[in-house]
Structures are given as C-alpha cells and as structure tokens.
Specification:
Layout (H helix, E strand, L loop, with lengths): L1 E9 L6 H12 L5 E6 L7 H6 L7 E3 L10 H7 L8 H7 L7 E4 L14 H5 L1 H21 L4 E8 L6 H12 L4 E7 L3 H31 L9 H7 L1 H12 L2 H4 L12 E9 L7 E3 L1 H5 L2 H10 L11 E5 L11 E3 L9 H16 L6 H21 L3 H5 L9 H11 L2 H4 L11 H19 L5 H14 L9 H18 L7 H12 L8 H6 L8 H11 L1 H35 L12 H11 L8 H25 L5
Parallel strand pairs: 1-5, 1-6, 2-4, 2-5, 3-4, 6-7, 7-9
Antiparallel strand pairs: 8-10
C-alpha cells in the first residue's frame, strides 16, 4: 500500500535516541508492520539487547540471516551488496518477518573475534554511505512489498552527529517528501546539545520548505498554481535548489511528493527532550527555554516542534534520569514551590498488616492450612484493590499467582483421568492396597524425620502426600479405588526420584527447580514400578499395560508434584514477593493508571510459577520504573508526535 520512514537522530550520544526509537516502534505496531533498522554504527547492535531483554524480547523479532544467526546489516552490506551478489526481494522473502512484533535488523561493527566488519571511516565517506543508503532503500521497498495491503513503518536509529550515512539518508528522505519522511531529534537540556539539535532541525525545516516552494513553482509553470514571487531570488542564492529544480524537470513523479499546501513543520519534524532530571517532573524546577535558546527564529521553531504550551514549557519531554545533575543548564533554571499531594496511610497500614500475617504463618507445620490462609489474604487483597478503585491493578494480577493455584491445578489434572481409569480391570486390586499406601507414606515421613536433615521440607512433603491421598475422593465412587491405586504408584515413583529427600532445604529446592525443566521418559516407568511394593503382585500388568496407558499422565503428574511441592516450600516467600511488588504501585500512582506491566507480570510468573527464580526486590523496582518510563514515553509520542503524523 505505502510506507512511512522515521529517522531518529541526535547530535551527541547517550541521550536516549535508541530508547525513543524502540518505543516509537512499539506504538506504531498498532498502525501497521514495523521494521527497525539499526544504523548507529557507533553503538551496540540492537539485535542482542532486544532478544535478551526482559522488557523487549516479547515485542521484538530479531531478523535472522541465511545462516540462522542474527542478521548484521553491516556484514550483509560488505559480504553481499558491495559485491553485487544479492537480490533483496528474494532475500526478504527468505527471512522470517513478524507482523505483530518489531522486526529488528542490527548493525554490529565488530566480528566475534573483535575485528571490525568494515572500516568505519569508509561508511563516513560519500561513496560508501551512498551504497549503504541504496541497500537500505531496497530493504525498505522490499519490506513494503511483503505487506502490500497495509502501510508499513520503517524506523531508522541513526548514528549521533551529522556525518556520513546520516547526511546521505537525509537526502534520500528529502526526496520522499514530508508525507512519507519524518524526523525526530532527541536532545538533552544541555545548552550546547539543544542548540545543536535546533540548528539541525532548522536545516531540515529549510530544506523541506525550500523544496515545497520549488515544487510549487514547477507546478505554476504548468498552470497548476500561483507563482511564488520570491522563488527566483531563492533559486539564484542556492545552487543546490537550482539542481533540484532541473531534476524535477526530468523526474516529474518527484513533484507529487511535494504537492502539499501549507504544510506545518510539525507534520514531519519533532524534537524530544529526553533524560531530564526526574526532580523536574513535579514542576517545582523548570527551564527558561527562551533564555537558553537566545534566538528568535530557533525559539519559534522550538515552540512548534517541541509542543510548547502557554506556560512556555515543552510537552514532548521525558523526565527519566535520577542521577543527572543541572550543571550544564544551571543558569537557566527557575524554581517553583509545589506541595506534594496524596495520603498513603491506608495502604501503608494495609501492607504492613499483610506482611505481618504472612510472617506469622511461616512456622506453621500444616502447610495446607498455611496455603489456605494465604490464599484468603490474597483474595482479600484483590477485593481491597477493587474497592479502592484500583481495578486495573486487580485485573492485571494473574490467577496463577494465587497460593492455592498449584493444588487446584493438580486436582483438575487428576480429575481428567476418568476415561482411562475406567479401562483398568476391577479385579486388579489387592485387598489391602489402601492400608499399604498409608503405611508406605508413614515410612517415608518417618525416614525423613529420623534423618534430622530434611529441615523445612518435612512439613511440605507431608502436606503434598496428604493432598495426593485426598485426591482419590474426587472421582465417582466406582472409580475411587482405581484412582487411589494409580496415585499411590505415581507418588511412589515421584519420591523414588527425590533422591534429595534427606538433603537440606536449599538442595531440595534446587533439585525441584531442575526437575521442572526436564520431562520423564516413558521407559523410566519400569524401574519406578519395580520398586513399588504396593503393586508387587500386579507388577507385570502395571509395567506392560498401565504404564503405556498413563505415560502422558505420569509425566504431567510428576511435573505437577514438583511444582506443587515448590509452591508449598515457597508459599510464604512468594506471597511476600507479590505484596512487595504491588506495594511499588499502590499507592503512588493514580488509581486509574496503576497496572502491572507485561514485563513485571512475566517476572512474577517466573518467580512464583515457572522458573521459581528467587525474587529480588531491587530488580522488581527496576522493572517497575523502566516499564512506567517506557509507558510515559509511548504516551508522549502518541500525543505529541504521532497525532500530527498519522
């Protein structure tokens, strides 16, 4: 259908240009397919950070090359394009693109052995930067063909400064015109940096405006519009525009890119002030931008492209960095008194009470009772959030985080076996099977108790054994004996596998975490069953018939036992982790905005349910702060930038 291309630039490094590029890409996913080209040869390639980042891995598809490794734009340029051995359309058809994620092509100037892919000085010269621009142009066109029914969005993360490739890309984008080509310059409030960005912005503005005037003049020669009386003076002053005018004569299709009337500069150019000191976010500290800029023309341009409001403050601003000081613009600061609002007393007392109630259950030997108690506290917390208008927070809490979830999952798993249980013959049973199971369970627990080294795991294992015994009561009365027998065989096999039963808590926990990532092979059934005294006189039938019949069920049950035992072991720590995380958001956020980010939900799910990684409150705080900051950047881009562009 069409494409739009966005150049994200800065005039010095470290101002958050790549962060803006990633967040712009995420916002644009709602509008069409997105391709993010890393053309910053001075920084780290985007491929590795986006594929390994908790915050970005879910949203990004790092494009692979022909060898299955991350595609490196510079390597591809050197190995293929400069040798004329590549067909871009065929290549793009081979790579795997993802319509619903950001397609990332990185640029790493170093090989694995730390030699350079290409001499960076070559990319700064006019010829090589032109060739690289040609490659980028072909990739853009081919990406557009891949999604011919939609408008595609291509974002270029440029190198800092204005040399080499950036300058060549500007000429390419000028050729496309303001409807397709958009520019975002990212600056700090360092006076020198902002001045440099405003000079670059003014150059972009003048270049596009002059081309609009030339295009109108060209149209006027064909009786398509009024003659601009100032155009001849402009043409005489600027030889490059004269050349551009003659090029228009040969390529009339270029004129259509500039057949626009009264184009507002905000339609194609924006400046974003990033990484401002966080202390400025409450309005108590402000910058006198008029005094900082000290140029009437630049000030007028700044007021438009930075969305300056009636109070003289720009709206395309990100308050981000807690460590940045004011030394580079101290003399431009204006101070205002602003009272801090908000009463935190209710939630402070609420969380203090919940943490204490959780602590009171730690020494409880009845782990099933502890789990039930904490589950009630969890449900009451969710209800409190809803009552206090934190509906978004309540809805973003995953049901798998509830303390009883693993027990319920195991119950549902066992209750699904009904059909296969009916295929076990009724004459299979030994009269004293149930009493043997109870005796075996008691022997296991006695062995752990006598060893004196099981530590806190004894109560957890005892709770799991009791719960598994109770599961036999779920089924229909005619199936209960069969279910009881099957669970006894499975549980026996599980504890045969737990060769760390006499080990300390840490080793037991590590063993269980390891087991969660492994599956049980069907041929292991035999050796587990051989050890099961419960079915000693039905061993052959169990091994040859029952084992293959319940192969999948055995694997699922084993994993469920590992997970449930881990949840019982960690139930207090998991609940504390959940409380600590929720407390980061409530209070402190407007109730309508408080919501766990996808990254935070992934982290908590890993801690509580999946990987059972140990909770780190500092990491949770970092994830919360980062996610909220990215959300603010995305909202700013939607409201202040894209509202004029899409």
């Amino acid at each position: 259908m069409s494409f739009k291309i966005y150049s994200i630039e800065s005039r010095k490094g470290g101002v958050g240009k790549t962060t803006i590029a990633l967040n712009l890409a995420k916002v644009l996913l709602d509008k069409g397919p997105v391709l993010l080209l890393d053309c910053d040869i001075t920084g780290t390639s985007l491929s590795e950070p986006t594929s390994n980042s908790l915050q970005w891995a879910r949203s990004c598809n790092v494009v692979k090359g022909e060898e299955g490794t991350n595609l490196n734009l510079l390597s591809y340029f050197v190995d293929k394009f400069t040798n004329g051995v590549v067909d871009i359309d065929k290549f793009v058809n081979k790579v795997i693109l993802d319509r619903d994620r950001i397609n990332v092509i990185g640029s790493d100037i170093y090989n694995d052995d730390y030699t350079t892919v290409v001499d960076p000085r070559l990319l700064m010269d006019e010829l090589h930067s032109y060739w690289l621009k040609e490659l980028i142009e072909q990739i853009v066109c081919s990406f557009e063909k891949s999604y011919s029914e939609e408008t595609v969005h291509v974002i270029i993360d440029n190198s800092p400064g204005y040399v080499g490739l950036c300058q060549t890309l500007h000429n390419y984008m000028y050729r496309l015109g303001p409807e397709k080509a958009k520019f975002i310059l990212v600056s700090s409030v360092d006076a020198q940096d902002l001045q440099a960005c405003l000079s670059a912005s003014n150059e972009i503005y003048q270049s596009i405006e002059n081309r609009i005037r030339v295009a109108r003049y060209y149209d006027s020669l064909n009786d398509k519009g009024p003659i601009d009386s100032n155009i001849e003076e402009l043409m005489d002053k600027d030889g490059s525009l004269r050349r551009f005018f003659f090029k228009l004569s040969d390529e009339e299709y270029l004129v259509s890119n500039y057949q626009v009337n009264n184009v507002d500069v905000r339609h194609y150019l924006r400046i974003v002030l990033n990484k401002l000191p966080k202390k400025m976010s409450d309005g108590s500290i402000q910058v006198d931008y008029k005094k900082l800029i000290q140029d009437k023309q630049k000030e007028e341009l700044f007021s438009k492209i930075a969305s300056v409001n009636d109070e003289g403050l720009p709206q395309s601003v990100v308050f981000y960095d807690e460590k940045i000081s004011f030394q580079y613009f101290q003399k431009y600061i204006v101070y205002h008194n602003k009272a801090k609002e908000g009463d935190e007393s209710y939630w402070k007392g609420r969380f203090k009470s919940l943490h204490q109630q959780n602590k009171d259950t730690v020494l409880n030997d009845d782990r099933l009772k502890t789990t039930a108690t904490l589950n009630t506290l969890y449900e009451n917390l969710v209800k409190s959030l809803i009552d206090k208008n934190y509906n978004y927070m309540a809805s973003s809490m995953d049901e798998s985080w509830a303390p009883k979830h693993a027990l319920i999952t195991m119950k549902d798993l066992v209750s699904s076996w009904s059909e296969k249980l009916s295929r076990i013959p009724s004459n299979f049973y030994v009269g004293d099977t149930i009493s043997q199971l109870h005796l075996w369970n008691e022997n296991i627990l006695m062995e752990m108790r006598d060893s004196g080294s099981a530590g806190n795991t004894l109560a957890d294992v005892k709770a799991l054994v009791s719960y598994v015994e109770s599961l036999a009561n779920f089924g229909r009365s005619d199936q209960s004996p069969k279910l009881f027998l099957l669970l006894s065989v499975l549980l026996h096999a599980v504890f045969q596998k737990y060769h760390y039963l006499k080990a300390p808590y840490v080793e037991m926990r590590s063993f269980l975490v390891e087991q969660l990532s492994n599956s049980i092979r069907e041929d292991n059934w035999g050796k587990y069953v051989e050890r099961s005294e419960i079915v000693y006189n039905r061993r052959i039938w169990v091994k040859n018939t029952m084992c293959p019949m319940f192969a999948k069920e055995f694997n699922d049950f084993y994993v469920s036992c590992c997970n449930t035992l881990l949840r019982l072991i960690d139930v207090n720590n998991d609940f504390d982790a959940l409380l600590t995380t929720i407390q980061l958001y409530v209070p402190g956020e407007p109730s309508s905005e408080a919501e766990l980010s996808n990254e935070m939900k992934d982290y908590l799910t890993d801690v509580i349910c999946l990987k059972k990684s140990l909770f780190n409150d500092s990491q949770a705080l970092n994830i919360k702060n980062y996610s909220k900051q990215m959300e603010k950047i995305q909202n700013m881009l939607k409201e202040q930038v894209l509202s004029n562009w899409l």
